[in-house]
Amino acid sequence: MKKRILIALALCMALGTACGKKEVEEEKTLRSVEVTTVGKGDIASEFSYTGKAAPAKEVSVVPTVPGKVLSFNYDVGDKVGQGAVLFTVDSTDLQNNMRSLQASYNAAKLGRDNAKSTYDSNKLLYDEEIISKNEFDQIKYAYESADAQLASIQVQMDNLKKNISDCTVTSPMTGVIATRGVEKGSFASQAAPAYTVMDLSTIKVEVSVSEQVLNTIQVGDKVSVLMTAASETPLTGTVATIAPAAEQTGMYTVKVELDNKDGKIKSGMMAEVSFTMAASDDTILLPRNAVIEKDNETYVYVINNGKAKKTAVELGIEAEDTIEIKSGLKKGDNVVTKGQTYLSDGEEVTIANTAAKTSSQAVVPQTTGTPSSRHLTTLPYAVEGVVNSMATSALLNASDWKSSGLFISMMDTIS
Description:
Elements: H1 2-19, E1 25-29, E2 31-37, E3 39-61, E4 67-72, E5 79-80, E6 85-89, H2 92-127, H3 133-166, E7 168-170, E8 175-180, E9 187-188, E10 195-209, H4 211-214, E11 222-226, E12 235-242, E13 252-259, E14 270-287, E15 292-294, E16 297-304, E17 307-312, E18 314-319, E19 322-327, E20 334-338, E21 349-351, H5 356-360, E22 363-367, H6 381-393, H7 398-404, H8 406-414
Parallel strand pairs: 2-21
Antiparallel strand pairs: 1-22, 2-20, 3-10, 3-14, 4-6, 4-9, 5-8, 6-7, 8-10, 10-13, 11-12, 11-14, 12-13, 14-19, 15-16, 16-17, 18-19
């Protein structure tokens, strides 16, 4: 009888433990965010346009006198000075014409000299009224005609001399031979350039810019020119001209010039010209995605003592993924860059990108009850095992015991 009472008491104790206070583990979930520490730097807003390098000066050389090429002295890529002889054209026919004209000139000069002598002597007679005016006018006319004929031949000789001189074709400027279109024995004419000479000491790059950018550009402005084929670092160019009227495309042509004394830049190389719209040095910078613009507000979230504080900011220059903060932040502030979309002012957060253990603090368990099985040590082995298992895991409460029928079967066993 006593044994049954003890077992019943033990069973009640087990049931009381199972039906009593269970372990309650409360979890407090914090939103995980990533932050960046505010720093300072330089920023500039730029617009870039693509163009091709071309020589600042380029001249096509054609002969003024067509003819057979006797010789040429320069080939493509050669440097040439101003006045250097590029090629010569056969001037044999011109030289023959010159000799003929020279003979005509000599004869005309002799006739003019005789007419002048006659005029001078007869003028004295006319002044003394020895000869009539009609006779003197005829003598005067003969002299003037002889003089005009001599002058005409002189002009022809001068033109012929120039043509003979032009048979020796020289370079109009110092530069580099870009093309050569003549061969020895070929016929040179004005139909096609015989040579093309480029001055590559200065390079020009022409780009077409939009009307939004045009009024921010001034002649003399310094611009960045990236030409990877010539230099790994950007070069500095100067705005030389700005078109006053738009092209048919609605764009405006801007010519930029660069110094090319070392000759690294070649005509035709691709160039990317960047025009600076605005710039700021040593200013607060942030990743663009950290800034929220919503409901006519512009703000970020600053982490302070584990809480997100909504902070209004004033934006400045924007360049790609970075933006200037003109007011609202200071250097060293920790600003949320990821996870800020659904944050609220004052919300507690955990920072994911500071240390590995920080992310584990997103869930903070708080234990309010501790299960124990030390009171069941006096039960028989079969019953003690079942009761200990239930009490320890806290899976069944009193109603679970009754509904399972285990309680009744155990009591039957005890009886």
